[in-house]
Specification:
Blueprint (H helix, E strand, L loop, with lengths): L9 E2 H21 L4 H15 L2 E4 L3 E7 L2 E6 L3 E4 L5 E6 L3 E4 L3 E4 L5 E12 L2 H6 L4 H17 L20 H16 L4 E13 L1 H40 L7 H16 L15
Antiparallel strand pairs: 1-5, 2-5, 3-4, 3-6, 7-9, 8-9, 9-10
Helix pairs in contact: 1-2, 4-5, 6-7
InterPro entries: Band_7, Band_7/SPFH_dom_sf
Membrane topology: Single-pass membrane protein
Keywords: Membrane, Transmembrane, Transmembrane helix
């Protein structure tokens, strides 16, 4: 495995003030003394070759240098630099980048088809590995991210199976799922000298062929949960009403009248529509 190391280069401004006078001297000799003309031409060629050693490094960029196919180092210092002219130099961006994957269809842990996509924030941290360990590190990010996303999505269910369950699900635990996805992508991209800074699920939904059925299921679950709360509250209110009537001796009710009162109160409290009461103007019995 090829790992990054510091390459040879010197300050470009210092090299400029050394190479420029040599170029002027060689042209001066060429003009003033024709006897030393071959030497002057040779010196001029050497100076011009040295001129090819200048290069510029932008902020958050790196220059990967090779000599006849061998890696000789990386230069990350910004500004004008000079190195051996025979070094081939390739630019690698160290800036943070965003990648948004396409929406892919995958089966979750229960076999339900879902659509999922992610956004990955990444950057190059080892320029040598990025250049020499993979053929195209940007394409490598795309393919490996989608592969990691597919593998992660198939390991968890879309929704938790029980409201009180602590099982991790794609929809109910977004932060935890993001951390798991980040680790899985990093394990794959680390081989290419890349670092994942953040990974978030950008799209999560059931596939269109089952979306309608799953929506009805979610609505039914919500209705059942709401009804359970309503019934629980209604039973408590009926119990409180009976206890208050008995404690304050407002009226004495036998078991049959209590059952009728409970039935009427539950209808009023649990009904979807407003109750229409019937007033008894006669005797209670």
């Amino acid at each position: 495995m090829i790992t990054e190391k510091k390459g040879f280069s010197i300050n470009g401004y210092l090299a400029f003030f050394v190479v420029l006078p040599l170029l002027q001297i060689s042209f001066g000799i060429m003009i003033a003394n024709k006897i030393l003309l071959p030497m002057s031409i040779f010196c001029s060629i050497v100076v011009l070759v040295c001129w090819a050693g200048f290069f510029m490094v932008q902020p958050n960029q790196a220059k990967v240098m090779t000599l006849f196919g061998s890696y000789v180092g990386t230069e990350k210092r910004n500004g004008l630099r000079w190195t051996i002219p025979f070094f081939m130099r390739k630019t690698v961006s160290l800036r943070i980048r965003n990648f948004e994957s396409a929406k892919i269809k995958v089966n979750d842990n229960l076999g339900n088809p879902i659509e999922i996509a992610t956004i990955v924030v990444w950057s190059v941290t080892d320029s040598a590995e990025a250049m020499f360990e993979v053929d195209d590190y940007e394409s490598y990010v795309t393919i490996q991210t989608e592969s990691a996303l597919r593998n992660m999505a198939s390991s968890y269910c879309y929704d938790p199976q029980d409201d009180d369950s602590a099982d991790i699900a794609l929809r109910s635990h977004p932060q935890h799922i993001s951390e798991i996805l980040k680790q899985e992508i990093q394990e794959r991209l680390g081989k290419a000298g890349l670092t994942v800074h953040e990974s978030k699920i950008s799209h999560l939904a059931y596939s269109p062929e089952i979306a309608s059925a799953m929506l009805q299921r979610q609505q039914a679950t919500a209705i059942i949960a709401a009804r359970s709360k309503i019934v629980e509250g209604a039973v408590g209110m009926v119990e409180m009403a009976l206890d208050r009537l008995k404690a304050q001796n407002v009226v004495e009710l036998d078991e049959e009248r209590k059952a009728m009162m409970v039935s009427n109160l539950l209808v009023v409290l649990c009904g979807d529509k407003n109750a229409q009461p019937i007033i008894n103007s006669g005797s209670l019995y």
